[in-house]
Amino acid sequence: MSLTVQLQTMLVMVAMGGWLGMAIDTYSRLIRGRKWKQWITVINDSLFWIIQGLLVFYILLQINEGEMRFYILLALLCGYSCYRALLYRIYQNILEATIQAIIKTYKFCKAALFMLVINPTKGLLKLLYTVCMMILSFLITVIFFLLKVLYTPFIWLGRGIWRLLPKEKLDKFSNKLGFFKKIKNYIMRWFTKKGS
């Protein structure tokens, strides 16, 4: 490995150390800060470190064909230490401002969606429902009125015919109906006795 490649490797590993510091802080703020079950936390931590390790190895592979030496680890630690000493507060402020901006943007978009789309749609649907119910009530009223107009002459006709019928025939008919009622009552009593 030439001196230039070694110098490039050192500088890139210092930068990767700073990247690791920022990634750890971002991960802690977004994922670790939440209350997860223990096994989910273990899976999240494992995936985080596997991804970071693969990223460092990929960068190392691009620079010096994946040769791992002790000074590379020292460069990583040096980069992480520099980040902690010099850039930690700045990055924390930028991260928090970014998160708050994303949250405010999300809340604004949600409020705008409700105000411009969902609430007008609800109002329109309520209006349509009210109009449909009014139309339906009107149609039902008209139909009942028309039915009343249609069957009222038949009622009058039936009453007129009833008045024209002789009283003796009506009495005989009602007696026959009484006879049928007695038979029905007798059969019902017989069935109830059989059932018990």
Number of helical elements: 4
Task: Give me the Rg, rounded.
Answer: 45 Å
Count of beta strands: 0
Give the topology string: H per helix, E per strand. HHHH
Note the quaternary state here: single chain
Instruction: Estimate the helix proportion, in percent.
Output: over 70%
Please identify the structural class as seen in this structure: mainly alpha
Structure write-up:
The protein is mostly helical and 196 residues long. The protein folds into two domains: 3-118, no CATH class; 166-196. It has four helices and no strands. The protein has helices at residues 3-32, 38-64, 70-164, 167-195. The longest helix is centred in the middle third of the chain and has 95 residues, at 70-164. The chain is elongated and about 135 Å long. The N and C termini lie far apart (108 Å).
Task: Offer a concise description of the structure.
The protein has 196 residues and is an all-alpha fold. It has four helices and no strands. The termini are far apart.
Blueprint of the fold:
Layout: H1 3-32, H2 38-64, H3 70-164, H4 167-195
Helix pairs in contact: 1-2, 1-3
